[in-house]
Amino acid sequence: MPKKTAYTAKIEYLQILDENGKLDERLARGTLKDDEVIFLYEQMTISRHYDEIAFKLQRSGRMGTYPQNKGQEAGPAGAGYAIRQHNPEAWLVPCYRENLALFLNGLPMEKILLHWMGDERGNQIPDGVNILPISIPIGTHPLHAAGLAWAGKYRGEDRVAITFFGDGATSEGDVHEALNFASALKLPVIFFCQNNRWAISVPSSIQTGSETFAQKGLAYGMPCFQIDGNDIFASYKVVKDAINRAVKENQPTFIESLTYRLGDHTTADDARRYRDPEEVEAWVGRDPLIRTRKYLESKDLWSESKQKELEAKAKEVVDAVVKKAEGIDKPTTDDIFDYTFAELNGQLIEQKQTLRTSSLGTHPQQEGLQTHA
Amino acid sequence: MPATIETPKPDFTHTPSRDGDRVIQFREALREALSEEMRKDPRIFLMGEEVAQYNGAYKVSQGMLDEFGPERIIDTPISENGFAGLGIGAAMYGLRPVIEFMSWSFSLVAADQILNNAPKMLYMSGGQWGCPIVFRGNDGAGGQLGSTHSWCIEALYSNVPGLKMAIPSCPYDAKGLLKTSLLDDDPVFFLESERMLGDKAHVPEEEYYIPFGKAALRREGSDCTVVSFGRPVHFCLDAAEELAKEGMNCDVLDMRTVRPLDLDAIIESIRKTNRIVVVDQSWPFASVASEVITQVCEHGFDWLDAPPVRVNSDDVPTPYAKELEAAYLPNAHKIAQAVRTACGRA
Questions:
Q1: In this predicted structure, what is the pLDDT of residue A362?
Q2: Which residues of B are catalytic?
Q3: Other CB atoms closer than 10 Å to residue A126's CB: what's the count?
Q4: Which of A17, B261, B320, B330 is deepest in the core (most CB within 10 A)?
Q5: Would you call A118 an interface residue with chain B, using a CB distance cutoff of 8 Å?
């Protein structure tokens, strides 16, 4: 019997804007124009400030647990912007570290704060905004992206679904089942894996024996790419191309976006306990905001005064968002019953009434709680 | 397909006779329900292992590929978690998926999707994203399938808020309940039984819907209330027949859905009989029978003249050997004995 190579593959790595803010002009062709770079730089800066304020809100007891996005803004910025420009009807199926992709596609900024303040209404998405509620179980939501893409195809639309998840999620079976379905049923899904090197305290070296996370998609016969996830150009380009393939060929794509979680996993974590400060320091140097600013400065598109203006704007925007989130009335006890079934039934009607009357106000934490609006 | 389609409210007022000579199998009744609704609503599709080319592992979907095509009758990889999750995503984008588990035993690998996602989606999105999806398949010991393939999932799954669970015992109800399930806006867990798919009975050709949360009184008697659902209803009727010869007459209540549960029908019956036996082929600990009895004690204790009795499978993994499996499951003899105990005649 002849011996032959049954399969070979390679993973392409893409970086267009390096950590010193130097752009590869050839690779950058057809990607982001200068005004778009400025726009995304502004959005990343606002997002970074939002993140810092969210952290402070948690520390001062005004919000529950919060997962900082700090350091990972560029991947979601480029991806979200590509969706907004090239498939604005697309479904975005997030986990919890891609706020900017959601904001860029119409999610009101107070929604995320409201969610982390423990209010389900943070996941009430406005009509016409195709974003699923934040998914906290690790890796279960890429299957929903496959389902949404399937439904779009069934309806005869050119609508893609993009789902975001971390390196840790690739160890969950659900992610692999989603990859397999997307491939076997030819679904327009973009799998955007943010490899931020740490799944809480588990480094990616323990997460997998593979050389890359990108190659996880190879087994499912889909194009796979690794990008510098702190580079908005690379992220934009790889997602734009993926949208094309998805729409034209119903082909899914797997993207590994190499980045780094500069903050803790969540506010309930302290990464100093398990991470080498030198490693963190090295990644601070690769911060997507710094390199984007350097690029803009190198083209005389940015200045200290513009930076000051932007910082003032970020403060203004985020202050307003916090005010909005905190200004929303507390949820009512009726909500927990009304949202359980499409139509309230049976004993829930009784329980709803009981909570309104006999048991309400018996616990100090219920102070200020309204029974119904 | 239009962007949005209004789901009609099922008409429960039309209740054709259960008697007649249009005798078809349980599986055909299921197929009829699915096909009738699929003809009316382009959002409905059937997805699962072997449902298309092979006509269904248990032939429920026989011929449906020919009628509805591969876009709506979809064979999947062997990946229950995968197609359960895919169905949830499709439901969230306005489709009405029917997800077939060859066996509910296989749904255990999809637990996060079916228990942690589908029934909570509406709640977690502040009432915005409902999940109108029907999960259906064979439940219970199918006959020498061994411990891992003989699951009764009703106790475990019905614990979760946000889902509905229908468990028909006969072809007539199979059609009516499945049709209602397909119009429901919440996730419905629809439990069939491999042991009943070949059961034959009259099923009206016309369309009809059976409401959830309404038990059916299968036999009337004033000595003891016997409550069950799904396949064991037949054993209850056999036991009642036997007991009638001894002068003990039973109300036999077929719950038809356990979520919602028609407690009113049970209370009404025990006000007459003052005794209750609950038959449930799940394991006894925290079973649906436990729940029924708890609720009866909470709401109807004063009507009881004797401690409630339950008949469950024994509290061990389902045996593989034919004789042991038969010994382990509820049967007419065990039920009759339980009724005698409840009536102080043991």
A1: 55
A2: 80, 149
A3: 11
A4: A17
A5: no
